Amino acid sequence: MDTPMFSVAAASPFWVFASLLSLFLLLFTLARVLISGRRSLPLPPGTMGWPYIGETFQLYSQNPNVFFASKVKRYGKIFKTHVLGCPCVMISSPEAAKFILVTKSHLFKPTFPASKERMLGRQAIFFHQGPYHMKLRKIVMRAVMPEAIKNIVSDVETIAVSCLQSWDGQLINTFQEMKTYTYNVGLHSIFGKEGALYREELKRCYYILERGYNSMPINLPGTLFNKAMKARKELSQIVAKILHSRRQSKEERNDLLGSFMDEKEGLTDEQIADNVIGVIFAARDTTASVLTWIVKYLGENPSVLQTVTEEQESIMKSKENGGEDKSLTWADTRKMPISSRVIQETLRVASILSFTFREAVEDVEYGGYLIPKGWKVLPLFRNIHHSPDNFPDPEKFDPSRFEVAPKPNTFMPFGNGAHSCPGNELAKLEILVLLHHLTTKYRWSMVGPHNGIQYGPFALPQNGLPIRLFSKS
Ligand code: HEM
């Protein structure tokens, strides 16, 4: 009896070890088969151009959309190329965009050149995945979701009215002036009424930062990049000063800075500063570009301008006939379906963010092709928005097409998934408020050629769309 007992006890650890070993070997072999299976998948069709330079020149020597369109025509909705020193896979089908940005977003991390990360601040929301990113998103959403921005409609209106009055009778560069508007609204949503106090100080630094942002990343005294890095430091110091004075006053605020400062969130001052600077960056030029395109499309489409004006005039009249307070309210902005469709159609046609970047964190199979680990992946929003499969007669500016909801994943002006734009409601609000006053009180004419597009980096009408603006009265 002893012997079997002894042998079972002695054999047990051996068998456990042996079983574990064989399980490990089996898994290892399976993984190898899987990996080699993936590795043996073909890369998407396409050409990689010259060593290192790749096809960068072909992309940037012309309107980038010509490059994308010719590739899609030749290779289909997924193709490979090599730009700015990186192998890339570009995709232009709604299903592939959903796969990368939503369903398999954990396999594709956001990616930016190191110089841009340094300039905006490494702790900014754009560069992160996982719990830290989710926390930042929650904080930003809390301050810019409809429930929160309902309370700032009349402040946004004051800013819009004051900007428009300052343009009256002037020849203006639409984009530059819209930037002033969106910057002032952005500061208000971040710092509340305090924003106006720091406007000029922050603006001076921000403009230097902006000039260096697209420059060569050479950090030597006198270069644009070097000046921008210094301005960046100054911006952090200004935010630190604001943080200090808020902590002294102990007053609780429900603006974005207040949300970042919530002690429960446990963010450091550096994390707060990087994200404040990041939000100004994300909010200003994007919204200003869209507003510039709206001014252009309305100017070119008198019948659309007429219907928008009528919609806005009826809101204005209903307020004149109403009680005391003539300021626009959140409820008024919900009664602007025609203007809202003009915004949607502008976002589609102009597609100011033609694409976004991700990087594959491991080998990924999509549609029978291999997307190798480390390759950049670019969902091409503009191609999706301009495909006749998704939008008939896609080059035509026709807001009425949005009377019917677009097919899923075909309309992504604010991105999609974990990194989609948290500020989209704020952007739409500020556009509607400006449109209300622009169409009811002013008329404008475009000056000089306005059919060209420039990219800097957002798509923009040529020369920022110079216009002459007059008060209707
Ligand atoms: C019409 C104007 C705007 C457009 C077209 C736009 C577009 C976008 C897009 C496409 C993305 C996603 C990029 C990606 O997936 O790689 C994004 C992200 C972002 N946007 Fe906007 N945006 C606009 C206005 C704003 C405003 C007003 C704010 C202010 C709160 C804002 C804050 C952000 C932030 C913080 C992110 C990063 C989100 C994250 O990484 O989780 N944007 N935006």
UniProtKB/TrEMBL annotation:
- UniProt-listed Enzyme Commission number(s): 1.14.14.137
Q: Which GO terms describe its molecular function?
A: (+)-abscisic acid 8'-hydroxylase activity; heme binding; iron ion binding; oxidoreductase activity, acting on paired donors, with incorporation or reduction of molecular oxygen, NAD(P)H as one donor, and incorporation of one atom of oxygen
Q: What's the superkingdom here? A: Eukaryota
EC primary class: oxidoreductase
Functional pathway: Plant hormone degradation; abscisic acid degradation
Q: Name one Pfam family in it.
A: p450
Any idea which positions bind heme? 421
Membrane topology designation: Single-pass membrane protein
- What name does the UniProt record give this protein? (+)-abscisic acid 8'-hydroxylase
Source species: Nelumbo nucifera
As recorded in Swiss-Prot or TrEMBL, the protein's gene is named LOC104610297
